[in-house]
């Protein structure tokens, strides 16, 4: 990459906003009246699932085309609504009586929309979090008190908390994303003062991400997460409850398999891994690479753009600048701390909550047998997270290496 590449560079070319980062800026929360059948189901989704009426409602739903969706935001909202309805339809009865076929009234428009938006045929982080928020006070701040989801699944306040805390992690990442671009330009122009400030800004942003993630303890009940929320985030890939995947009636000829929702679908962590030169173990990296296919294509392309820049770690090592090395290591160390926090959260919300459910005899009847200790994305959660954390920590640079260059 050359300095000239920045002459036309714009974050907006990657569907990234200076003010909102990877979050969709001010999502719509209503569609044209033609799509009232979708809106009606989405508005009552939790009640329909809990009273076991969703499948009947979907089967009687008219088959609507997508031709009346005028712009990108309308298409994104339609995809958000349908993604939630799909997850509710599949997991309405959890593992008991899992469906094998998604009816054409839902499958055909969902497949058409997903193809246009470049997303897989399952709910992803972008549907669940990035485009699934609205302000209570239109002029108010992006805070827990002023936010709600557009559409929800079962889990009550804990489901709301889970989505919105995750959103606030993305909010905290916004200054860091801008600092990534500043750091790359400074790297190319060998502007050390600007690079140093950009690294310090990144470290602060990553620290703020961790502080936002910490709110999970305050807003999400671990038993509700384990026994309810995570079921609706599950996929149908490597899932013994759906060994053949899901058939999308009228849209595809064979059943398809997709991973469920995962924090690994958050683009910002991939960006930092590429920028800091974190080389994960093959099995972990393979999973992370697959998760890039579950991101909006423009966001995945941004990761590729960052991957294509000169190696920041090499420059810092060769600079013999201890301030740069310290700031670089602060970024990596703080990112490692966030990943350690994620491990502690998974320990509480999956491992410990799972053990508690088994003691109470809930696991056998909860319909979550297929998950066990796996993450909703399908990975062996603790093994994967510890590997990623340890490899991240291994990205720290040694002072002696820089001083000797």
From TrEMBL:
GO terms for cellular component: cytoplasm. InterPro entries: Indolamine_dOase, Trp/Indoleamine_2_3_dOase-like. Transmembrane segments: none annotated. Heme b binds at residue 342. This is Indoleamine 2,3-dioxygenase 1. It comes from the Eukaryota. It comes from Leptobrachium leishanense. Belongs to the indoleamine 2,3-dioxygenase family. The keyword Cytoplasm does not apply. GO terms for molecular function: heme binding; indoleamine 2,3-dioxygenase activity; L-tryptophan 2,3-dioxygenase activity; metal ion binding. Keywords: Dioxygenase, Heme, Immunity, Iron, Metal-binding, Oxidoreductase, Tryptophan catabolism. Gene3D superfamilies: 1.20.58.480. The keyword Zinc does not apply. One of its GO terms (biological process) is L-tryptophan catabolic process to kynurenine.
